[in-house]
Description:
Blueprint: H1 2-20, H2 27-39, H3 48-64, H4 73-88
Helix pairs in contact: 1-3
Amino acid sequence: MERHWETARSRSSVHPYLLCHQRLTALTSLYNEVGPLKETPDAAHPVAALVTAHARLDSAVAAAYGWEWSLAEDDLLARLLALNLERASR
């Protein structure tokens, strides 16, 4: 239950930032802020909460599939393709 509250708090820190920065009202613009924060973390940046939320989600999804996290992008895509092909063949 605590994780749900952490996620809610993360969202609440992003919302005021969006209200104050009109140029970030589009989702694409918001995610354009995420890339640089992954490369150069800045915990004080309000969008950093979104980066943290995605990292937790990535880890949880990998764990649900029984995969270690973090996977290289090529390995991740290969595993997802294999899952897709397996499910499509059913």
